[in-house]
Amino acid sequence: MTYTSHTKFSGELAGHLGQIVSVVVFSVGIMVQKDLASRYAAADIVALQFSISAVLMWVACAALGYLPRRLSDAVPGILWGMLTPGIVFLLASEGASRTDGVSVALIWGMIPLLSPIVGRFVLGERFHWSLPLGASIGFCGVVALTLNRQSIGAGDALGNLLVLAGVMTVVIGQMIGRRLNTQGAPWFRMATLQITGATLISIFVIGLDGSWVPRISSNDWAAFSGLAYLVLGMTMVNFIGYNLALSRIPVAWVSLYSSLSPAIGTLTAVILLAALVRPSDAFGIMVIVGGVALPHLFRILKGRRAATTAAT
Question: pTM for this structure?
Fold first, then answer.
């Protein structure tokens, strides 16, 4: 393996690992958020989560020498963060409040199916046929897991459209993020700017309720420990890993790993909430993991065939 090919492989590996870590900490964070939301306003939690993370990320940027030199270097990333996850959060939360949980999960599961196609037309990124096949298998696993876990309620057309708008915003955001992260700006700085944009939207949301200051009881240490994870894990590590991935691997791969989120969420519920896993749950999780693993298996087999051919 030449130095150039080794460097390319190492960069791609870092991107894959970064997105896997991002999906894991995000999925666990959903459970933590759910627990805190039972005691405090969700908007307050999100505003605190992003605000503290933004401050820490800017301090880290200054220490690493990644501060933008001009306002024009910062504005695109901040606007991107306002779009996703900022606007996405508003669309998804409003849509989820109007429609049933099954519809939300299934519509959200369309991201790995849509991103490769949009990425091909917008960014010109080619993808192997095993990627959409793996995404389709993963989506089947999401369907099996979701229909088993939740009863189908009365879906709402407007709610479904809002969730779909959130999904399309995520897909568009991935295209923007991929472009921003491959134009020379440090991916750590882009993560900081994205969190900053999301912070502005979250503060605006709590301002609509007449308060610009999030509220959490000062003696609720359990809430503060949960908030610490949301800041360090769900926000900082999540967005650092996500932007690292966008700087190293195509959006088709980045979106594929998001299929793992329902499976990781189910396992997290088992560990943290002592939820019961039924055989049908295990089947859904195995289908999801199999769909994500499929493109990797094709790459391994292709590499072995190439090595065998070269040896002969």
Answer: 0.83
